[in-house]
Amino acid sequence: MLYLDHAAGGPVRREVLEAMAPFLTGRFGNPSSIHTVGEDVAGALDDARRRVAAVLGMRAGDIVFTSGGTEANNLAIAGIALGARGRAPGHIVTTAVEHDSVLAVCRYLQRMHRYDVDVLPVDSLGRVDPDAVARAVRDDTAVVSIGYANNEVGTVQDVAAIARAAGSVPVHTDAVQAAGWLPLTGTGASALSVAGHKIGAPQGIGVLAVRGRLPLEPVIHGGGQERGRRSGTQNVAGAVGLALALELAERERPEAAARAAAARDAFTSRVLGTVPGSRATGDPDRRLPGLASFTFAATSGEAVLLELERRGIVTSSGSACAAGSDEPSHVLTAMGLDADDARTAVRFSFDRATAPDAGALAGAVADAVSAVRSGS
């Protein structure tokens, strides 16, 4: 089997699993306990926090461990908005191509807390104009949330330009897809989300990094862990694993990104040259190194996926969070595709360690598309 759905998640790295193992067995203490067993584990948690902060170019106190990217995005947007405005409704700026965990929490704040939400359009490549951000920002804008790299089409936003356009308004960026592929420092963002299962750590662990003294209202209440910003007993094994996975991904990033980008470009060129009615989606220049996405006219994306799996290739039609939905991708329709075209989408996402044979993979895609069109 050739697994090409790494944008949805991948295996835990062996080094990461070995680093986590002691905290799943002998070093089992609760880091909030004041006895020596708890203090031992708390020390490991503090070390993981410092290591994550070092990769992200932040301070240890800026790091909040979460259950993953969805919680990190919810905490960032709701936490910053409510922390800034309290009970007074305010304003949020985002875009039409964000992950559902961003758009859903914006709708929640709109529905339950009477926030105004500006959902900015994007162009046909999935890019938002920083000048549009500058025009959208108001005196009562609490937060701007725009993803670093799109999970469906791979388009990379100019977060630094967006942060400059936002001025003094805090900018949050969902960097879940960017981690391990793009630099995580120098973005200018005030808050940044990362998920472990995209970089070789397990599912169920993530990070929200919130710079400095930005007020953050918790969305999970209880024992006041994570300096009162996220209650709940911490996943120490996951935090240790995420810290190591993030360090390894950053260390390997330049070589891995170059290798994946070369394979992606070769694969994309062959698909467009050999599969009639194929169209690449997303920005051809500013995109994730390991992600190629297409639409295939006169097909169903789901049917192409099944044909590919029959040939030993596992991939996806878009976000794993929307798998099984009959609705067309909101990302593709926001980019100007009609619903029928959007339903033909297929996404291929590579890992960092290896690159697939572009010719063989493109040949399998051509065969799968042909089989769907012929009804065989």
Describe the overall structure.
- The chain has 376 residues and is α/β, with parallel strands linked by helices.
- It is built from eleven helices and twelve strands.
- Strands 2-8-7-6-5-3-4 form a seven-stranded mixed beta sheet, sandwiched between helices. It has a three-stranded antiparallel beta sheet with strand order 9-10-12. The protein has a two-stranded parallel ribbon with strand order 1-11.
- α8 (301-310) crosses α11 (358-374).
- It is globular.
- It starts with a strand and ends with a helix.
- The model has no long low-confidence stretch (mean pLDDT 96).
Task: List the SSEs and their pairings.
Blueprint (H helix, E strand, L loop, with lengths): L1 E2 L10 H7 L15 H21 L6 E4 L2 H17 L5 E5 L4 H14 L2 E5 L9 H7 L4 E5 L13 H8 L4 E4 L16 E5 L10 E5 L25 H39 L3 E3 L10 E6 L4 H10 L2 E2 L15 H5 L4 H4 L2 E5 L8 H17 L2
Parallel strand pairs: 1-11, 3-4, 3-5, 5-6, 6-7
Antiparallel strand pairs: 2-8, 7-8, 9-10, 10-12
Helix pairs in contact: 1-7, 2-7, 3-4, 5-6, 7-11, 8-11
